[in-house]
Amino acid sequence: MAEAYIVDAVRTAGGRRGGRLAGVHPVDLGAATLDAIADRNDFDPSAIEDVITGCVMQGGEQSGDVGRNAVLASKLPDSIPSVSIDRQCGSSQQSIQFAAQGIMSGTQDMVLAHGIESMTRVPMGSTFKLFKDAGLGTNKSERLEEAYPGVQFSQFMGAEMLVKKHGFDRSDLDQFALESHQKAIAATESGAFANEIVAMKVETPEGEEMHKVDEGIRFDASMESISGVKVLQEGGAITAANASQICDGSSAVLVCSEQALKDHGLTPRAKILNLTVTAGDPVIMLEEPLFATDRALERAGMKIDDIDMYEVNEAFAPVPLAWLKHTGADRSKINVHGGAIALGHPLGASGTKLMATLLNAMEQKGAKTGLQTMCEGGGQANVTIIERLN
């Protein structure tokens, strides 16, 4: 079977809801990272055989195959096709895995994995609300209701269930949230994100500026400020401060075959070692990364101690905390430059975003192997394991 290699990975700096990226159409947001891949790498972009774009809220400005529209708005040739996919929060991590599978199968040599989400302009849940409000039904069918009577599938409730099941308390979550901000602050101030962030020109009340710093980081974060935020449910532990931030952003990862590397004189930054996707309990929902990681490590013939660095999406603080407890992984190796609690979680763009951050952190800290995973709606999870090459 052919090997799949990562040549480059980029992302925009996260934009807060209603913030610096709010004036950017999602299509143009997506085009920015496609352009960056073409600009940063010396090859004929017409060699790209497909762009696989993750996007969760595929309605309004993100409808009509948003990935294809981003290609048409970008510097890439119009001859490059694109497909938009939805595996909830794991959409663009699945884009990476589909791209790698195309390479490994021998049917393609150069594929761009990509993600777009403007949570300001196409709000979370808007595609459901539109049809429900119009009396056109919901996504819970009669048969699904029979299978799960009275259940409202909710990531928030799943997070509260994780807290109780794994024995965490509010202070555990808040401490993890503070660490996320502290790591993101250190990474920003040291310039650690410089190679992965695509600066974007934006209009602000002060005039035209370059957006290149993650807008969600609380540079004044403290345990006092985080613990002072109200819980979202009486008796619960989840707050807006220990959950991921609503975020606008896009990201892209160039995946190539060995033949493409030779043909275009490209130097790979990493090799993809394992692609895993699993599904489990759709009610607790957010726990599946634990079991997906078990399967990925088994299939790769590895143990958790063989992995030098981990990116576990911080959808809610109990997710990475439960993952650490289950796997016995070293806490110092997780989300070393901060995670979605500080940097934001642009839904469909988060998979390729996390890969950009993981790969850059591995290079800076000399890590050889890295593992990325995230929880996803419906009780699903992707795991991708990579090996750094330079």
TrEMBL record:
Name of the protein in question: Acetyl-CoA C-acetyltransferase
Domain named Thiolase C-terminal: residues: 267-388
Residue ranges occupied by any Thiolase N-terminal domain in the UniProt entry: 5-259
NCBIfam families: AcCoA-C-Actrans (TIGR01930), PRK06504.1 (NF005077)
Active site: C89, H345, C375
Homology family: Belongs to the thiolase-like superfamily. Thiolase family.
PANTHER family: ACETYL-COA C-ACYLTRANSFERASE, BLR7806 PROTEIN
Top-rank taxon, per record: Bacteria
